[in-house]
Amino acid sequence: MGAGQPNSGGSGEPGPVRLLGDGVAALMAVLRAAGREVIGPTVRDGAIVLRPLKRPDDLPRGWHDRQEAGLYRLDWEDRPTRFAHAAPAQGWKRVLHPPEACVGTAYRGGIASSAEGADAGPDGPCWAAPEASPPLRAFFGVRPCDLAALSVLDGILANPAAGYHDPAYARRRRDTLVVAADCASPAATCFCAGMGTGPGVGDSGFDVALTELVEGDAAVYLARAGSPAGAALLEAVEHRPASDAERAAATDQTVRATKAQTRALPADPRAILARATEHRHWADVAARCLACGTCTLACPTCFCATVEDATSLDGVTAARTRRWSSCFTEAFSYIHGGAVRGTRGARYRQWITHKLSAWYDQFGTSGCVGCGRCVTWCPVGIDITAEVAALSETRPSHRRRGPARRPVDGSATPRRRKDDPPAP
Amino acid sequence: MDAAAAAALADRLTETAAAARLPASLTEGDPWRPRPFRIDRWRRDLSDTFTVDLVPLDGPPLTFAPGQFNMLYVHGAGEVPISISGDPDQPERLVHTTRAVGQVTNAMKALRVGDTLGVRGPFGTPWPVEAAFGHDVVIVAGGIGLAPLRPLIHAVLARRERFGTVVLLYGARTPEDILYRAAVTAWRGRFDMSVHVTVDRATGRWSGPIGMVTKLIARGGFDARDTMAYVCGPEVMMRHAAQALIDKGVAAERLFLSMERNMKCAIGLCGHCQWGADFVCKDGPVFRYDRVAARLAQAEV
Amino acid sequence: MVPMQDMDDLLNAHPFFAGLSPRLLEELAGCARNERFDAGDYLFQEGGVADRFYILRHGQVAVEVKAPHAGAVVLETLHTDDTLGWSWLVPPHHWTFDARAVTLVRAVSLDGVCLRGKMETDHELGFHLLSRFVPVMGERLRAARLQMLDLYAPPGLTPPA
């Protein structure tokens, strides 16, 4: 979303500024004074989640997360950092594309199931759209992977070039300011560096970008504006130009966060998946996958939804509610007679192929931003990076009996298999 | 920050943010709003299949192209995608043929003349009609697959002189399951169209062919090398019919079929109807065979 | 009786025999004769001796089976240019179904005993005849399998995949 050019703010100051005093507290105060609901990371039920923030102390000061495949733990140390965590448990789609939202209400008489007993005639009300004005919001401390996810969601639900869009999403998006924050502490599940989405905030997609640095026993903040609105915000808080040393510290921090990442998707997953449509590995994933759909809920770009109907007791009004839905459920692909994708292997194939391949055809980008949530929150630790690696294996992963094939180099010696007995 | 400064900042944030972010067109409109239509005519076609003629209660008729579909909403029961079955040159009557197989379609079956339905649409890609100008036309239908093809037959017959030979090959379950029997009989009586109907099973009273519709294709009656073919029916039938047409010599890029998948929004935003990289609701339902042949052969896509 | 030369031409014109050499056509013609059935006539009946096969020149034939309470159930119909019957190739050479003329049917029948005798010694003839029968059998099997699926049945009645 064209949120303006970097440093195009009206402050006239090129490059980042150093916020004076407790810059984060000042920025939050300004946003709240300007009527914005501030939503950001906070600790709830043993995880960092995104919730409305009333005061700076709501931020997860001193908390950092440990994330592994199928594991999430929070630890606390007496440290001044507020953003020393990786991807929060949920993405921002929870706010912009809520799990449940009324899309409208139908009135009997307008669109009635029966003319008999109709309350309103054909001229009466038939359909009421929900409230059109969402609250004014500011997203605070958005991680670079989630910034990329916002851009992905925009490309699907609010794309001016597409034939259709979701006006309710577009209104929420329009009324949301974005304060991003560089990521200095990636988790073991993170692979944003390989996806090109982090760990540093890029040049666009935000109003203000923060960098949290530790000086002695205090956290200090650099900030840059990414839009005229961001520039207006920074004008309202005390700051000075950032020093060369401070800029260098910010760059070093991002380099360290890049190097700290160990996971990555193999290069060109599209080609791997295109070759792997009938791969034996799907059965292997299916044996582990619980088809619970947690990955699709945790994923910041999974946008699929269904619509459900509920009628009032008197039968007059019928609400239509859009709810998140998951391609891991049997009902997702149901057409009369049964589900198109009846097996877990087929559903996992659909999810990962959509995310990493079809997404490019549909929306011109990857559906994966490298946040690692699906890896962390999968109850059995299915790891998208490892699965793609296994799918790139051209030799079937399933152990086979049978005559050894000639090696691809054409030599006469059959290639040894792991399960072959050792050579005499 | 004092109150006046805060208010000024709030205004500035709203203005600059709104201007920088989204074209106003994106925040307007209501893609979920159904238009109310009144059922003007209701008739039973088969034991589980019925046809409604709808007229709009709130404005102009809904114009459509052959092969497109609407989302039909039954108050409180829900919404279902149903192909349009009427004559595209007579849009003032919106005709839908539906098989009662689920909650919504059964609720729809219980409606009668005078009742209202909600309509969103039309959606999806049409059967290409003009592309067949100057060529033979072969229309292959299986079961209720004749319903989405009927607007195409209307469109072709309305411009009959633009086409070469026109052939309808129709496979039904039994002679009692022949959809639009009166129309099929009338088409059969025309001198400028050949109609062949085969059934899967029949008693001795049926004197027509018995067997798969693919056998009708093999029997020919059209210039396969100069033919546009349109196929609609169950997926298995379409796969075999397409192969029979190819075997006969019809070019894969002149062969079109209409797919069915679960649809909830019909505007490519809910994700349900994905088939490979395509959203059947907006990239289909009508697809060119050569573009989907590989995917069609794959299970559980 | 059709003169032998005419029978050659007649067989040559039929798609089933397309591409056969004049020598093989002549061998086949030696076992062939023209037949005609009125509507309702049986070309053969279940259990009868399968001593020939037919190539249909004109008309429609119903392949059917008699079932208790159901009368004759038609399994498929065959039409102009179709080939009918292969039980003559498979011991014990008995027809497995009935074949009834639905309309006036003109056909050429080929004598199975005569052909089997020639195929025993003339392997080229045997090869060419079998390589024409196998695709026909394959096509019938495919059609039967698709029919078995009952593709147009209401969803509840569709056999589970």
TrEMBL record, chain A:
Domain 4Fe-4S ferredoxin-type: 279-310, 359-387
Source species, domain of life: Bacteria
Region (Disordered): 393-424
Gene3D superfamilies, A to Z: Alpha-helical ferredoxin (1.10.1060.10)
Keyword Transcription regulation: no
UniProt xrefs under InterPro entries: 4Fe4S_Fe-S-bd, 4Fe4S_Fe_S_CS, Helical_ferredxn
GO molecular function per UniProt: iron-sulfur cluster binding; metal ion binding
Claim: Metal-binding is one of the keywords in the record: yes
Keywords: Iron, Iron-sulfur, Metal-binding
Protein name stated in the entry: 4Fe-4S ferredoxin-type domain-containing protein
Lineage of source species: Bacteria, Pseudomonadati, Pseudomonadota, Alphaproteobacteria, Rhodospirillales
Automatic annotation (TrEMBL), chain B:
Sections of the chain in a coiled coil: none
Pfam family, one: DHODB_Fe-S_bind
SUPFAM superfamilies linked to this entry: Ferredoxin reductase-like, C-terminal NADP-linked domain, Riboflavin synthase domain-like
InterPro entries reported for this sequence: Dihydroorotate_DH_Fe-S-bd (IPR019480), FAD-bd_FR_type (IPR017927), Flavoprot_Pyr_Nucl_cyt_Rdtase (IPR001709), FNR_nucleotide-bd (IPR039261), OxRdtase_FAD/NAD-bd (IPR001433), PyrK_electron_transfer (IPR050353), Riboflavin_synthase-like_b-brl (IPR017938)
FAD-binding FR-type domain boundaries: 32-129
Molecular functions per Gene Ontology: oxidoreductase activity
Name the UniProt record assigns to this protein: Ni/Fe hydrogenase subunit gamma
Species the sequence originates in: Roseospira marina
From TrEMBL, chain C:
Boundaries of every Cyclic nucleotide-binding domain copy: 16-116
Matching Gene3D superfamilies: Jelly Rolls
SUPFAM superfamilies, A to Z: cAMP-binding domain-like
InterPro entries found in the cross-reference section: cNMP-bd_dom (IPR000595), cNMP-bd_dom_sf (IPR018490), RmlC-like_jellyroll (IPR014710)
Pfam families assigned to the protein according to its UniProt record, in alphabetical order: cNMP_binding
Protein name (Swiss-Prot/TrEMBL): Cyclic nucleotide-binding domain-containing protein
Annotated organism of origin: Roseospira marina
